[in-house]
Amino acid sequence: MAVAFGGLIGLFVVLSGGAELQRDIAQEEARRKARLIGLAQTLAANIDGEDHAALAEATPEGRAPALARLRATRQANGLNWVGTSARGDDGHYTYVLDGGSPPPIPVGYPIFDGIELRERVYAGEVVFDLSMADEWGEWTVAMAPLIGADGSVVGVVEVMEDAAWQSLHADGVIRRTLAQTLIVILLSVGVAAAFARWMGQPLRGLTEAALAVANGDLARDVAVRGSSEISVLSRAFNEMVVGLRERERIRETFGRFVSAEVATRALADGGADLGGEARTVTILFSDLRGFSALSAQQAPAETLATLNRYFSVMTEVILAHEGNVSELLGDGMLVLFGAPVQHEDDAQRAVLCAVEMQQALDRFNAAVGQQLEMGIGVSTGSVIAGNIGSEKRMKYGVVGPPINLAARLESFTVGSQILICDQTLKAAGPVVEVGARMEMLAKGWSEPIACYPVRSAGVLTAPEETMILSWASVTLPARCRLIRGKRLSVNVRDGSVLGVTRRNFILKTRWPLKQRDQLLIDIGEGSAMIRDVYGLVTECTGSEDDWMSTVRITSIPEESQRRLFQLVSRG
């Protein structure tokens, strides 16, 4: 009986010890899972998704900092392998970064195993697998998604341990533990339980913080206690969060003028290589009239503030129509529709954007108390789109005739007018309503350029020109200088102004003018002189030494405008 009782007690001790051991193994597996997932998520949060795609094309020196971080994490945490992979446009996975021991897995090496796990990561999950087999062995693996600027998954961060070794180690522990005495069993179980609790708490805190950061909460920090490996990882995590906060601050500062989708697509399409591809795009070219005269009346800081406010208003409209602001040219803008992001309705969206920009300018003028005007030219055609420049300095842009055509169309505009070419009109469809066809002669074109003034696009109506039909008859001397391109002629020629409105005047000269000639004119004499009037010839007739021209005022200083209004009122 005693032997049986003792045997039963012994069996109970062994069974309870075995059960305790199994629980300890389960806790150890949970700890390993929390540890590997925490490391994978921390690394994923520490890698900028926008930079990850570029690393696949970077030189070994360019990948060195990222590889150093991965290898430091592997060595500090006793991992077998740390790296990243990405899914290509064809759906296949390849390695991007290899943080294992040399020789490394080369960038672009194809992946044939664990595809289901990686697909789950691309769906937004954090995955853990105790035993994933591939061509190199059997691994315990954790994978976390690498998030891009637009919130989409752009890659997979992977951390691995040798699953076969862990399994053998666990079996040995079981055999040795079952052979030990009850006290050794109890002590082992107690030590294991205490160790699990000691390790599990900071890891759970680190995992929770990593999940919060991955979801966009950059206010999370983790407590650092002592100098253990977990403490080192916690310090690195806190430093990473500080860097992310600074990066987010910079992004918020400049993000108002950058389309995140356009930037992401540009990196994905072009990478860091020079060159491009042929594609059909629609170009919008705008230029602000009257700003030069305004800047002469304001302090530089005030002028810059006004210009920045104008660009901010226009950029919001452009981004709403998914345009890409390619260049800011003084007070002009070059906007691309169809590069790098292409849509079937690029031409239609460009015209809608142009009309809404004019309406936004009306609201801007009312807000700042100005009378600025903006000409817009829109053209559609084939260009080469891609990265332009050198290895040290490049930008995404386009090259081709449609750019020059859009600029020429803008130069033909009068006041706040929108001119589009034939191809844009056809591509935009019936949603765009235009005025009568016009033909313009331009430098660099052998044939006249056909264009159309936009009246409306969808439910949006373009601003109409305010032409006052009642002219004030006057006879005033005029001193005129021609403007060719951006250069002002040194020759001053005399003429006479015979009629004025608030927006136009009739100019009589003994020398010929052509339609679309640009002039700088002083009207009148003495203290009542109307100075620095910029104008565009819209109509002209005459022969030999008797020419009559209608000139549209494009820019006039405030004092000169006041005198012109007084002149019109008296007439």
Description:
The protein is of the alpha+beta class and 571 residues long. It has three domains: 11-247, PAS domain (Beta-Lactamase, 2-Layer Sandwich), CATH 3.30.450.20; 280-461, Alpha-Beta Plaits (2-Layer Sandwich); 472-570, predicted glycosyltransferase like domains (Thrombin, subunit H). It contains 14 helices and 23 strands. It has helices spanning 2-46, 49-55, 60-77, 115-122, 163-179, 182-214, 229-254, 260-270, 291-297, 300-320, 346-368, 401-412, 422-428, 558-570, and strands spanning 81-87, 93-98, 110-111, 127-134, 137-147, 153-162, 275-289, 324-329, 332-337, 373-389, 394-399, 418-421, 432-434, 438-440, 449-457, 460-461, 472-484, 487-488, 493-500, 504-509, 518-523, 530-543, 546-555. Strands 7, 8, 9, 10, 11, 12, 13, 14, 15 and 16 form a ten-stranded mixed β-sheet that branches. Strands 3-2-1-6-5-4 form a six-stranded antiparallel β-sheet, with helices on both faces. α1 (2-46) packs parallel to α6 (182-214). The longest helix has 45 residues, at 2-46. The chain is elongated and about 125 Å long. The model is unreliable at 1-6 and 253-258 (pLDDT under 50).
